[in-house]
Target: Succinyl-diaminopimelate desuccinylase
Amino acid sequence: MADSMASVESILAQDADRYVEDLKALLRIPSVSADTAFHDHCLSAAAETAEQLEAAGCSAEIISTAGFPIVLGRSPEVPGASTVLVYGHYDVQPPDPLDEWETPAFEPTIRDGRIYARGATDDKGQMLTHIKSVDAWTKAAGHPPINVVFVIEGEEEVGSDNLDQFLKDHREKLKADVAVISDTSMYGPDIPAITYGLRGIVACEVTLTGPSQDLHSGIFGGAIANPCNELATLIGSLHDADGRVTVEGFYDDVRSLTDQERQAFADLPFDEATFCNNIGVKAPRGEAGFTTTERRWARPTCDVNGLFGGYSGEGPKTIVPSKATAKITCRLVPDQKPEAILDALKRHLEDRLPDGVTMSFMTYHGAPAFVMDPDHPAMAAASTAIDRAFGKPPVLIREGGSIPVVASLKSILDVDTLLLGWGQNTDNLHSPNERFSLKDFQRGIHASAALWAELAK
Model:
């Protein structure tokens, strides 16, 4: 295995420039899943992904769904070897606002050692690291030392509506010992990381309705309930002065951090003043008794994401609005149940709803939190592989966001997921001038190739 890995590393160095050109080819395709004007481009991105899988020595199928197709790839079978399922996505976010890009979003450009384009790090560049690592193994040894299955979808940026059904329909084909996703980030520049936990999420929209239409506030104000005022009161009831969520039962199932986890978080390089300065706030704020890192990664939250009602145009308009709406999400931690949290939130609001207004409560997507046992054998393999590629072992981190597919892989396929991010949180994901360090692109390919060797042991 040592000789084979040395041959693989030789191929990685030899083909580094070709890997970048292949990445550019995929980045040139404007595969924006949210906009029907880009429909054909999404199909082209699926085809390009399949072609690159085949060039890497894999079989590749483009499988139709009710939406955009899913590309299913498979390396040559190695009987008796373990199987890894690699998930990624070929669709990207809309590039708007276009005038804030220094170079066009779908004309990949290299500046200062980074490649700039929509999808560079989310997720075309990161996903491609695993295809190219299989490519290197194919050239060096005929195939990787384990079985690698690829599931590359085209609807991640619009909710992955057809992914769960695909996983159920192809359950037998997708049996694996562990999954790998590279759609997260390193902890910081030159600080590789394994993300062992993600927060879950629930989302809802709350609308209060008072009068049947907007009314003159001079004639009716003070005599009827104002939906905007009442919604503000309800929102104010969601937290106490210490930043704790006041919804009954909200914390009942929360899994607390261990002392070891809290110490590991505290040992990570983190400067609170720099954190605040980078995002333009004067001071952090959140649940009392926890650090900023703990609040972001491992504590549940309840946030208003949007708030609207009444008149919002220029100048005054003296009305009692007919309606007011809040969009609310709760980030969840391990053991919290999405359905229970939504039910509790709804009850909290209903119990405080004043006379004179009615409430509608609409729910959206949800997913439970994820945490992987740091002692899982695949974690040790990933740590060794990353150390070989980056020259230093990874730190173990959690992230505050949610990746619903992780929960789907566990619930449908009963497989745990290694979250191995090669990008940075500062790579302008979903924003103009998205980028990906080419050094980390190549190191990601190297780490992926080494991971296949470690998992084969």
The chain has a mean pLDDT of 96. Residues 159 and 365 are 8 Å apart (CA to CA). The chain has two domains: 2-198+369-455, 200-254+300-367. The first strand starts at residue 59 and ends at 63.
